[in-house]
Amino acid sequence: TEIGSQKDRVVTEEEWLRKWEMGNIGFHKEQGHPLLQKYLDVLLNGRSGLRIFFPLCGKAVEMKWLADMGHSVVGVEVSEQALKEFFAEHSLPYCEEPVPEISGAKKLRSTSGNISLYCCSIYDLSSSIVGKFDGVWDRGALVAVNPCDRQRYVSLMITLMEKNSSYLLVTVSYDPNKHKGPPFYVPESEIKSLFG
Question: Which positions in this protein are listed as binding S-adenosyl-L-methionine (predicted)?
Answer without folding.
Answer: 16-27, 56, 77, 121-122, 139
